[in-house]
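Hey,
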Amino acid sequence: MIRIEIPGKPVPKARARVTRSGHTYTPKTTLDYERVIAMGARVALAKWQQSHGTWDMSGTYMLTVTVVPYQSYAQRKRGRDARVGDWDNYGKIVSDALNGIVWHDDRQVAVGVVQVAVPTTRPGIVVTVSPVERPCIDSGWFVEVGKRS
């Protein structure tokens, strides 16, 4: 298991922007935070490889993202909620940032969990990546729509 800890205010993945001329681009805050996550992943992977050997980028993985949002003391004292992005945007920014470092493509994530913790004055993101077997479910587990048992 690789554990990546990114201290600081978490940034959710922002939607692509379109200029007046029709050109699309990714916002700078998203690109910058993806680079921060990628740097943390490279450090964590290097530490893992020192004690375990080569990491297999071609497997399937379980990704767990724990987001600890920022909430100032004043916000907490006044009873105001912290501004928190959607949980799926945190998962997306992390999975995209790990492309080419931990796995070839985030399509290799077979199991993903994103947790948004209680806001605190010590924000950050904790990411764990573990190799897993792709879940296999018996084809008879579902009931066809409209079919009565």
